[in-house]
Amino acid sequence: MSVEPLRMDLSKIAPDAYRHFLQLEGLIGQHVERKLLHLLKLRASQINGCAYCIAMHTDEALRDGEPTERLTLLDAWEESSAYSDKERAALAWIEEVTLIADTGASRESFEALKAHFSEEEIAWLTLAGVQINTWNRMAISSRAQYDRAMFSHTASAAKATEPA
């Protein structure tokens, strides 16, 4: 099976809407710890089968020092000792948000978050789940393909602006 070419470039067809998605992405990044956010985005993208986002978030996580082992085991996080209880609660929630038509965002997963996150943090985790699922749907429907070179300048710029 060959990869379909790009169907549409939403950033060019609907630039105002796309800009707002990017702005929301920036806000979420200010409120959710970066390494955790990588895991959440990658896990939702695995569930959704979004090749673009799996490649991008794996690349970003590796650049930010996430060990390869934890990324490799992410699909089996429930059986792995590589994740903290806090990460497990967030991963369970991201799966519930991603599969909301099946799970309804269970009370159990929501309550488990409260041991590790404040109400505000839970809200931002939820927004992170909503946002990555939106990105997945945009990338899959448009048949976007990740090009690491396209984002290398962004990663370098982000590192340069992070506090030491």
What would you say this structure looks like, in words?
It is a single chain. The chain starts with 9 loop residues before the first helix and ends with a helix. The protein has one domain (35-152): AhpD-like (Up-down Bundle), CATH 1.20.1290.10. It is built from 10 helices and no strands. It has 164 residues and is mostly helical. The protein is 72% helix and 0% strand. Helix 2 runs antiparallel to helix 9 (119-142), helix 3 runs antiparallel to helix 4 (51-63) and helix 3 packs parallel to helix 6. Residues 153-164 have low confidence and may be disordered. The radius of gyration is 16 Å and the shape is globular. The chain has helices at 10-13, 15-31, 34-48, 51-63, 68-73, 85-98, 100-103, 107-113, 119-142, 148-161.
Short description:
This is Carboxymuconolactone decarboxylase family protein. Helices cover 72% and strands 0% of the residues. It has helices at 10-13, 15-31, 34-48, 51-63, 68-73, 85-98, 100-103, 107-113, 119-142, 148-161.
Series of H and E elements = HHHHHHHHHH
Q: Multimeric state of these chains?
A: single chain
What's the domain count? 1
Mean pLDDT: 91
| Major pleated sheet | none
Shape: globular
Q: Could you name the CATH homologous superfamily?
A: AhpD-like
CATH C-level label: Mainly Alpha
Terminal Cα span: 46 Å
DSSP strand content = under 5%
CATH topology: AhpD-like
Number of helices: 10
| CATH architectural category | Up-down Bundle
Share of helix, binned: over 70%
What low-confidence regions span 5 or more consecutive residues with pLDDT below 50?
153-164
Radius of gyration: 16 Å
Write down how many β-strands occur, each being a DSSP E stretch of 2 or more residues: 0
SS-based structural class?
Answer: mainly alpha
